[in-house]
Design brief:
CATH superfamily of the largest domain: Electron Transport, Fmn-binding Protein, Chain A
Strand content: 15-25%
Bound molecules: flavin mononucleotide, manganese (II) ion
Shape: globular
Radius of gyration: 23 Å
Helix content: 25-40%
CATH architecture of the largest domain: Roll
Distance between the termini: 40 Å
CATH class of the largest domain: Mainly Beta
Length: 497
């Protein structure tokens, strides 16, 4: 770790990049403990206790990470971690100084990612994940600590802080993506992939050929690998290789015995198997990131598990979506805001000063962008690009574009700018027929049944109108740096006597 002033200076100048202090889940636990932010909870049940604790803890940014051990009915030492992304461990996880705020962290990540070139993963013969390999009758996914996360879930979701590894049957492209995983039986899991996601594109191709799709599911391991798995990266990129670039060295991978798919040698638990095109079982409902039981129970493909690889005393990562804002919204806001800013700038938009994918919309449904307006139409162009680029396209709703004096990460400030600088009749563009998801609670049931999973977007131009911006009434508050000075100067009068 570097000190803040030094790091800020270096980031402003060239690029210090991420300084990772851990390689895998075990190393991460040591770091979290060192920060005084890890608690162990023993002897709870998976039926209700763990879900209840998650509901209390995951909404609280100051709560510790919790490691559940000796979960009732599970082998001792088989553990489950929740709330990794909070406190000082938030920045530690991504390799940045622990005292940076979320905007500094997001900026650091965007700058670091600019310098990242994928480093191809490296195949090794063995590694910690091979300490136990279960096949045949020994396969029993139910012995891992898997809670009922929400009361009305249709089953136990073992895969929330997980990622799925698949291969494109035509090009060989290997992708990792986080898609929720439900236990169906001792040797079967179901997973749900929204149309358009990379794993879904792969699966659709196998299905069209009538072939079984090989897949591996990683449950716990390097926390940064999980964050890569749930961030939209360009198609044809292998997120494990981008992770290698992020970490500055190739990720060592084992080749699965049955599928030949690579998975990290330092993973905690890996399920390997095949998704057969003809087998479907009921999956869902699941309490989702929108804050609703989004898609109902439906027949979804099932993976037949051929092997389970796991370390001794494995640690699964749990990241259940709760009604936002929650932990999921916290890390999505950081990683997605960084990537969204990069997407918008790459599309050629000049003078983008701030981007925030808001926690209350789980970093999808409300995007705030600030710009220094340079020409007529600049604001709408920014809004449309934000709504339709890879990062913004899926499951969005509202994009608000504001001037550079607004801190877009501050919800009240963003809303103040929106309601005072936009005119409802003339400042809002609507885009129809956009990429959405069955999880969208506002798509009518009859449209979902017809398979119409599209929705609309509102682009709100809340900038001072370009052609008369100089006549816009002046703001009756000092600029932020002056406010900070005044706060110091008059601090003694602002406190209770
Ligand atoms: C905890 C969590 C659970 C997720 N579950 C799903 C899911 O069940 N299905 C899905 O399509 N996307 C899900 N996502 C979103 C995808 O992981 C995300 O869009 C990712 O970029 C997909 O990878 P891909 O772009 O390589 O397809 C989830 C994200 C998180 C953080
Ligand atoms: Mn991908």
């Amino acid at each position: 770790m570097v000190d803040k002033a030094e790091a800020t200076e270096a980031i402003a100048g060239s690029n210090i990049g991420a300084q990772m202090s851990y390689e895998d889940m075990r190393g991460w636990l040591i770091e979290a403990e060192r920060l005084g932010e890890l608690r162990v909870a023993e002897g709870l049940n998976w039926e209700t206790d763990i879900g209840e604790v998650a509901e209390v803890v995951l909404h609280n940014e100051n709560a510790p990470a919790i490691l559940f051990d000796n979960v009732q009915g599970c082998p001792p030492g088989f553990r489950l971690l929740i709330n990794f992304f909070a406190g000082k461990r938030r920045n530690m996880t991504m390799g940045f100084p622990t005292d940076w705020d979320k905007l500094e962290l997001t900026d650091g990540i965007q700058k670091h990612m600019k310098s990242v070139e994928p480093i191809p993963h490296k195949i090794v013969k063995s590694g910690p994940v091979c300490e136990n390999i279960l096949e045949g009758d020994k396969i029993d996914v139910e012995k891992f600590p898997t809670p009922m996360w929400h009361e009305q879930d249709g089953g136990r979701y073992i895969g929330t802080g997980s990622y799925n590894i698949t291969r494109d049957p035509e090009t060989g492209w290997i992708n990792i993506g986080t898609y929720r995983v439900m236990i169906q039986s001792k040797n079967e899991v179901g997973f749900y992939i929204s149309p358009g996601k990379h794993g879904r594109i792969h699966r659709d191709k196998y299905e069209a050929n009538g072939e079984a799709m090989p897949a591996c599911i990683v449950l716990g391991g390097d926390l940064m690998a999980f964050l890569m798995g749930c961030t939209e990266m360009p198609p044809n990129d292998n997120e494990l290789d981008i992770l290698g670039g992020y970490r500055g060295h190739a990720i060592e991978c084992i080749e699965g015995k049955h599928t030949g798919l690579p998975f990290p040698a330092n993973a905690e638990v890996v399920l390997e198997g095949f998704i057969h095109p003809e087998t479907r079982k009921l999956e869902g409902p699941f309490g989702e990131w929108t804050g609703y039981y989004g898609s109902d129970v439906r027949p979804e493909p099932v993976m037949e598990i051929k092997a389970i690889y796991h370390r001794n005393d494995p640690v699964i990562l749990g990241c259940p979506p709760l009604r936002p804002p929650d932990e999921l919204a916290r890390y999505r806001a950081v990683t997605r805001s960084a990537a969204l800013k990069e997407n918008i700038q790459k599309a050629g938009i000049p003078d983008v000063t701030g981007v925030w994918a808001h926690e209350c919309g789980t970093a999808r449904m409300l995007l705030g962008i600030s710009i220094k307006q340079r020409y007529p139409g600049h604001a709408m162009q920014t809004g449309h690009v934000a709504a339709m680029c890879h990062l913004g396209a899926y499951a969005g709703k509202y994009v608000v574009v504001v001037d550079e004096d607004i801190d877009v990460s501050n919800l009240e400030e963003l809303m103040w700018a929106m309601i005072t600088r936009s005119d409802p009749a003339s400042s809002i563009d609507i885009i129809h027929n956009c990429w959405s998801t069955p999880l969208d609670p506002r798509i009518p049931p009859e449209e979902k049944e017809k398979g119409n999973l599209t929705n609309s977007r509102a682009i709100i131009d809340a900038c001072r109108p370009f052609h008369w911006k100089d006549k816009f009434p002046a703001v009756n508050a000092p600029p932020p740096d002056v406010v900070r000075e005044l706060q110091q100067k008059w601090a003694h009068l602002a406190e209770k006597p």
